[in-house]
């Protein structure tokens, strides 16, 4: 019996297949324009220029997307697609981002709410204010990884899955770095990730952490320090 394939790997394979652009009625594009909240501080802005549709994530440049159906569009500069969930009148209520084997939902929000979220993020970036609880969450996560007992309950579903897959590599990395000595806050990234520097006996790593509104760790990235 062959073991089941990793669903994330299957989705990633499908998302990286060549896409074919089709013709659609450009009038439907107006149903998709607006703002969609992907994460606590990350907004998808959907605009049009003539018959062309563009998406822009907080802190990034606009990206043109091309229709592969009336409700699904793909980017050419990266392996990513977006699809729209619509109401009976055809107006989008939600956007789904298909990328890197993940399918992330972004609910439509109004312009005022989107502007408030962007203002809050801009202030947090300017002031260098970490999300409440992010340092404590990072310390707990590093401690659990060092012990070989990751606390998957403290993570969002997709992060927990990714951590399970990467855990052997993380263990090898921590074995080389040695005991943790200190953690210091470095600032807030353009998309709202809190950035920390962790010093160990044998090296440094840089961590980026994002918390969901419920306090769970929604995103976690690490790389070797300078």
In short:
The chain contains 4 helices and 12 strands. The protein has 226 residues and is of the alpha+beta class.
Give structural notes.
The protein is an alpha+beta fold. It has 2 domains: 7-127, Lipocalin (Beta Barrel); 134-224. The protein has 4 helices and 12 strands; from the N terminus they run αββββββββαααββββ. The chain has helices spanning 7-15, 111-127, 134-146, 157-177; strands at 34-39, 42-49, 52-57, 63-67, 72-75, 80-86, 92-99, 102-109, 180-188, 194-200, 203-211, 217-224. It has an 8-stranded antiparallel barrel. Strands 9-10-11-12 form a 4-stranded antiparallel beta sheet. It starts with 6 loop residues before the first helix and ends with a strand. The model has no long low-confidence stretch (mean pLDDT 91).
């Amino acid at each position: 019996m062959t073991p089941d394939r990793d669903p994330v790997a299957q989705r990633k394979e499908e998302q990286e297949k060549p896409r074919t652009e089709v013709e659609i009625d450009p009038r439907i594009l107006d149903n998709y324009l607006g703002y969609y909240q992907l994460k606590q501080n990350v907004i998808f802005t959907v605009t049009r220029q003539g018959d062309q549709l563009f998406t822009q994530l907080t802190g990034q440049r606009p990206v043109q997307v091309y229709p592969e159906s009336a409700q699904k569009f793909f980017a050419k500069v990266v392996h990513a697609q977006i699809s729209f969930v619509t109401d009976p009148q055809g107006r989008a209520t939600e956007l789904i981002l298909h990328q890197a084997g993940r399918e992330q939902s972004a609910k439509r929000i109004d312009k005022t709410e989107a502007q408030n979220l962007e203002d809050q993020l801009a202030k947090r970036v300017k002031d260098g204010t970490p999300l409440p609880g992010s340092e404590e969450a990072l310390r707990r996560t590093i401690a659990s990884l060092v012990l070989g007992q990751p606390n998957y309950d403290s993570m969002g579903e997709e992060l927990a899955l990714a951590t399970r897959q990467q855990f052997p590599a993380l263990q090898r990395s921590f074995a080389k770095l040695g005991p943790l000595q200190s953690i210091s806050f470095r600032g807030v990234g353009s998309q709202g990730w809190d950035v920390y520097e962790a010093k160990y006996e044998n090296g440094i790593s840089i961590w980026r952490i994002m918390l969901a509104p419920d306090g769970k760790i929604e995103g976690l990235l690490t790389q070797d320090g300078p």
